[in-house]
Every structure is written in C-alpha cells, then in structure tokens.
Amino acid sequence: MLRYFTSGESHGEALVAFLSGLPAGLEVDQAFLDRELWRRQQGYGRGGRMRIESDKAHILSGVRHGKTIGSPIAVLLENKDWKNWQEALPVEEGEAAKHKRVASPRPGHADLAGALKYNFPEARYVLERASARESAARVAVGGLAKLFLRELRIEVLSHVVAVGSATVNKDVSWDEIHALSQRQEILLNCADSETEPHMKEEVDKVLKSGDSVGGVFEVVAHNVPPGLGTYAQWDERLDALLAGALMSLQAVKAVEIGAGVTAAASPGSAVHDEIGYQRASGFAGFTRARNNAGGIEGGVSNGEDIRVRGYLKPISTLRRPLQSVDFATREVVKAAYERSDVCVVPAAGVGGEAMVALTLARCALEKFGGDSIPETQRNFQGYLEQLKKF
C-alpha cells in the first residue's frame, strides 16, 4: 500500500514528508517537483510568507541516480523563515520571555479546539501544526505520485471555479485546464478570462476591508481507466477516499464529485449519464454523453475524467480580527493576528491535486501491484487489453 505522512511546524526548521510504497525504477524529475511547489506558492492574495520562502524538494532517501529504489522516500523542505523564529520556537526549553504566545484564539481556526484537546495554555503549538504551510509537504510527495501516474498515462490538474461571488459559469475542458497549468504567471488559476478579473476584484475588496475570501477549486484527473476503487467495501470506495483526502486540506469545508450539489435538486433523467457504444472509443468502447457522475459510479472509476471540487472557507486570520477571549484572563478581546493570506484558493487547488494524485496512485497500486515500474506497467497493459476485449 502507498503510505505517506508529514511532520514539521509552520515556523519550525523544516517540513518533512515520507512516502512509502512507490515501485522501484520511477524516474524522478526534480524540476517537476520544484515547479509543483512553486505553483502552490502562487496566486493573487497570498501573504508575505510567500516572499520569504522558495520551496525546493530536497530528497533524503529512497531515490538514487535519479530513480526510486523501492525504499521509503523522505523529502525535506527548508523553512527559510526559521531564522526569525529560532528563539521563539526552540527545540530545547529556551527563554520563556522570547516565546510568541497566541493569547486569544481565532474564530474558525483550530486554536481553541486544539488548546482544549492538548491542554495547552495558549495556541502557539496548535497554530504551528494546523497551519496550511503543512500542505507544502503534501504537494512534494503528491508530485512523486503524479510522476507515477504519468507512467499509466494519468494526469491530474486543477483550476479555480469561484472566488467569493465571482463564479465560472461554463464547462471547462481538459485542454483548457492543461493550458492553464503551463502559464509562467499565475493570478487566480482561472480558465475563464472573463471571470478572472472579477475574482481579482473580490480579493481587492477584502484586502481593503481587512477581511478574507474563500472559493471553490476543481481537481480533474484525466485518462483514468475504469476499475479503480470498489463498491465491495465502504472504506474502499473511490469517491469516499477522494472526499476524505480533499476534506483533509486546511480550510476545505465541503467536497463535491461531479454535479453532486445540483444533482440533489434535479430529476434522475437530468442527472444520470446515458451510455452509448462506439467501437475503439475510450477504454472499452463505451461512451457517455455527459459526465455528471464526475468519473465515478458506485465507488468505482468509470473511464470518464474524474472531477472533484473543494469548497474553501475564508482564511480564519483577519487583519480586522473578530471577537475572542483571552486564554489567561477570560476577558473579551480581539482574536490574535498572525501574518497571513487573504485568498488561497489557487494554492489549495494545487494541494487538492496532490491529494487526488496520492489517492489515485494508491488505488492504482492496489489494483495493478508491482515492485518495479516495468512490472506495474506489464500488469496495467494486461488490464487495458482485457478492457479492449470486453
């Protein structure tokens, strides 16, 4: 099984990600991994932290001579801001007077719930781990998962559907999303040139008012064969795995697969994707007139593009803070302020890509197996032949 986890704090010395289970012989493109990390740092509305960090994936283990060797992979991401926090967040005891307390919890953040759970007198340690800075580590190992999926001709990308009230009201094709990913400058990662300026206006509005804004991103997995996931067990359904993966991203409060939200208020005849057949089309000749199911039926991929949307709440840290309570005195005060973004929807989309890629890579390895890339590819090709003969 493909397994991964991360460690590190937002202002600690580094983030570390671990990935175990990738087959041996996968070529690791360092420039691709670093561009993935660069994409996560872009977007209109990001804060000052992005001007400090320049994330690079430093691989410590599991890759030699440019290829995976079958052993666990460890990736380190240096936090350049650490030099400003060494006295505030030392590993050793340090000086209490130099610690930077988070004296009042921010509404909408993990501050209060985390402090109560771990019995902390204030929220500094909660903030440090709950921060979306952690998602950079996931993007690093998600890049490795993307490289693996490429061996199976599967690609994963994202685009922004909405920022505040500015929404794309048209279907966006895979070709448009792919072209978007090749841009050298990322504004709001929106494929609709008419809507993107209105998204920028939404960000400008909250910048002026000291507020923050959320939105919606869509992750699309292209060329996924039918048969990933299963209906046989509740915790192995592909839609459930993807929903949990996206919901695990910081600030994501809802997940939609295909036309899930509008489908709930529509008749079945307007929702379900009619099936046709055209020899030599797709993976097994079966066709769909539309893709309201988002590429998944009954917990199993059906050969259409997988489309998953993440609904992002506004960032909890506001420059004009909401009411809170002081941890020590219990008096009503303003919530703590920590340097932050005002809009992270494009960056969250890149994090969403990583989570979708890791989930699909896990499901693909469970289905096709293989301790080396040639073995996995042989098994995959055999399955494609099976589909052709169906």
Structural commentary:
- With 390 residues, the chain is an alpha+beta fold.
- The chain is built from 12 helices and 17 strands.
- 33% of the residues lie in helices and 19% in strands.
Main attributes of the structure:
5-stranded antiparallel sheet, 12 helices, single chain, Chorismate synthase, AroC fold, 4-stranded antiparallel sheet, alpha+beta
Topology of this protein?
Layout: E1 3-7, E2 14-20, H1 30-41, H2 49-52, E3 58-61, E4 63-64, E5 67-68, E6 73-78, H3 111-118, H4 124-130, H5 135-150, E7 155-163, E8 166-167, H6 174-181, H7 196-209, E9 215-222, H8 238-247, E10 252-257, H9 260-263, H10 268-271, E11 275-277, E12 286-288, E13 296-297, E14 300-301, E15 306-312, E16 323-325, E17 332-334, H11 345-368, H12 373-388
Antiparallel strand pairs: 1-2, 2-6, 3-6, 4-5, 7-8, 7-9, 9-15, 10-15, 11-12, 13-14, 16-17
Helix pairs in contact: 1-5, 1-11, 5-11, 8-11
Number of strands: 17
- For the termini, the CA-CA separation is 28 Å
At the first level of CATH, the class is Alpha Beta
CATH topology: Chorismate synthase, AroC fold
Strand content: 15-25%
Integer average pLDDT? 95
Rg (C-alpha, Å): 22 Å
In short:
This protein is of the alpha+beta class and 390 residues long.
